[in-house]
Amino acid sequence: MKITNYIYLAAIALLFASCEIDNYEEPESFFTGNIVYNGEPIEVGAREVRFQLFQPGFGALAPLDVHLDLDGSFSGRFFDGDYKLKFINGQGPFKAYEVNEQQGDTIFISLRGNTNLDIEVLPYYMLRNEAFNAGTAAVDASASYEQIITGADARNIEFARLYLNDTEQVSNNGDYHMVWSDMTVGDGTLNGSTALPDGYSKPYVFARIALKIAGVEDMLFSPVQKLDL
Amino acid sequence: MKKYIYFLMIPFLLGSCSSDSEFLDREPTNVLSQEQAFGSPDLVISVLADLYNRYYDFGTVEDWSSLAQFNVAFWSEAGRYWYFQNGGYGYGDWGTWDYGYIREMNLFLERLELSEELDPEEKARFAAEGRFLRASYYFTMVKRMGGVPLILESQTYDFSGDATYLQFPRETEAALYDFVISEADAIVADLPGDSGIKARATKAAAMAMKARAALYAGSIAKYGASTPQVSLPGGEVGIPASRADEYYATALDAAQAIINGEVGSYALYEKKPDLSENFASLFYDKSNNSEAIFVEDFMLQTQKTHGFTIANQPRYGAEEEEGGRINPALSLVQSFETLDGTYAPLPIEDASGDPIHYDTPEALFANRDARLMGTVIVPGASFKGREVDIFAGVQLSDGTVISGDSRGQQKEVLGNDIQVVGFDGPIDGLEFTAQTGFYIRKYQDPKAGSGQRGTRSDVWFIRYRYAEVLLNAAEAAFELNQNEVAAGYLNQVRRRAGITTDLAAAEVTFDRIAHERFVEFAFEGLHFFDLKRWRIAHEVLDGTPMDATSITENIGDATKRLTQPFGLWPYKYYNPGGPNDGTYIYKIVKPNRVTGADRFQFGNYYSEIGAGILNNNPLIVRNPNQ
């Protein structure tokens, strides 16, 4: 037997050996859910709103960022354990409920296997009754809005916009929209029309209404609507 | 025979052990002891030089891109287009947390204090310089991070396993500004009042720092009220609005101390009759420059040189195969007023929408604020005696445009072989060409060899200059309702720029002051902090793309959108034998590498404090909105 054969043998043995001394297990549990108000999902912009998970008890405390999807859902894979869920002040078109005075708005969660959790929050406004109508050159839209937070914490509407995109990712930031225009904000209603870009050739378009609340960075959105042209 | 040698060695071994017990205890030849280092003024200067060298600038000529951020320019370098293709900024951007530097400054001050060899007057000056640098860095930190722990003595760990006694909470933002202001007052007496000293701290440098710090604090107090979400309940971020007037008054006093000549003789730089040339040479003339107050100096044939001219020299005739990186954007170029002091878009179209023809490429920019040509190399302007060759293509009388994709390309047009694109571009996506149609002139070194990697440039970087003192005074006076005083200072700066119509007191508005700072301090690293302290960054950089029609509207509005750099491209009109042959027309374009639109979020106003810092010190609170 040639020396090289021994080397091959040794290499194969090492390959198997290395399988056994693998270091860490991967995170095993999915943590999914929605940000909701009375069970209705709150829709937000793309990569705009996030919350943070902290897992105490392992020395250095670094937050795990969880971003919300456009439809207000989230999904992440984590190790089983006890976590603290914290919204970041000023993030999102909503306020987190205060659990109690000592705990503030921190939510304690315990992950044991796949967990689905809808988190109730208090939005400043809710959009309802969205109606879209696609013409050949423009998309008309209307919606009504309801003010949820009233009293001392109430905030005004800064503006509303109608965004169009050629993919189902529609948002105000980045290149998640082709065109947009301001909508007229009436008493409880929104109306507007956005022209399609010149030479738009696809047979469909995606539309979304966004509501900007004064002093809140992240806008409140309506569900993405696919429209056939 | 060998045996004898062993026997012989024994006494040597024993001897060497007993006779020289301090054999290993030697004075190091490459390290100076504390007594040595602080025993002679020359060595103290070397220690101090290291501290000066580590001064933190937000923008500096040593890093060209740091001077041209926030869409005042496009970056013509293939590896950096991403900056214009993303949607904003990370929360951790611009953060700084160098407590190692602070510790060394604290150690310097403590060790200097112990030294007995130095002349007391000299020692006081060194101490004042150390405190100036320390206050400068705390000023840098508070601008970027908000209030930070104020550590004024060197800390030592006692290895007890418990480091909590070394942990300090963040001070309030106001406390940091108060510290900078009080330090400036405390050291001014010990610093020299000689305006010939530029690269070391002087009385005027301390006062200029004080004026700037007080002005920033005042505006955060005043304008911070409009963005209550950018504040923390403990005051680590945000200053109470009630303190605004007090800070503005401090800023005005400090600035007037310089203006009235109390701390040395300084004046606007007005050496050259050609006002644009004068404005450009303000930045590179190092002999008897009356405007520079505190600079970072450089010297040829040492390690201390920089490559700003290499990076930005016009590509055509460049001394290396590179250059042209900073391409000023149209938004900046058109902001320079006409000589009679009015805002006007560059006239590229007549009333009916037809292009206006110009005989020379630079004629479009005639009768503008002299600072335009002093800051920007426009098509047809010259650098180092060579005219730049900027034109994007050739347009025929029927509207056809012929262009090329390599610098200075020749093509057959109407039967003739002609050059169809300039040797400086603009060519979309070709790095080092003037992709907006402009190059930068400010801080470019006109000396031969400054564009060579083997020589580099020794143009200094001005950290504080007299015009900023004037405009700081003007802004403080305006905020204190002294419009007459404000107009006086503004007009000094505007007259130097060749603007013939003075501003009346009633014409001084917030937008006027913001505009004056925008054009005067373009590419000096101050714009960013103006956007932040006035709390308008989230409006100027709102993430909405711009378009070619609205870009020319509302010039001079402080909150005018600037989310993307646009360009203005000249085209040669080719119409042999017909009218307008050989003239130039202009078109507004967006460089095609610009695909994103920048958005500045509330969480960007103060940089994120890293998780490591938060973990090590639980007393530190996080910045808002992150």
Task: Characterize the structure shown.
The complex is a heterodimer of chains A (229) and B (626). Chain A is mainly beta and 229 residues long. Chain A is 8% helix and 47% strand. Chain A is built from 1 helix and 18 strands. Chain A has one helix spanning 3-20; strands at 29-37, 40-41, 50-54, 64-67, 73-78, 81-87, 94-96, 107-111, 115-116, 119-123, 125-134, 138-147, 157-165, 179-185, 189-195, 204-213, 220-221, 225-228. In chain A, the strands form 3 sheets. In chain A, strands 11, 12, 13, 14, 15, 16, 17 and 18 form an 8-stranded antiparallel beta sheet that branches. In chain A, strands 1, 2, 5, 7, 9 and 10 form a 6-stranded mixed beta sheet that branches. Chain A is flat and about 85 Å long. The termini of chain A are far apart. With 626 residues, chain B is an alpha+beta fold. Chain B contains 18 helices and 14 strands. In chain B, the strands form 6 sheets. A 4-stranded mixed beta sheet of chain B has the order 8-7-13-14, with no helix packed on it. Chain B has a two-stranded antiparallel sheet with strand order 1-3. In chain B, strands 2-12 form a two-stranded antiparallel sheet. In chain B, β9 (410-413) and β10 form a beta hairpin. In chain B, α7 packs antiparallel against α8 (244-259) and α7 (203-223) runs parallel beside α13. The longest helix of chain B has 26 residues, at 120-145. Chain B is globular and about 105 Å long. The chains are: A mainly beta (229), B alpha+beta (626). Chain A binds chain B through residues 60-63, 88-91, 172-175, 215, 217, and chain B through 86-88, 227-229, 538, 543, 595-597, 599, 601-603, 611-612, 614-615, 624-626.
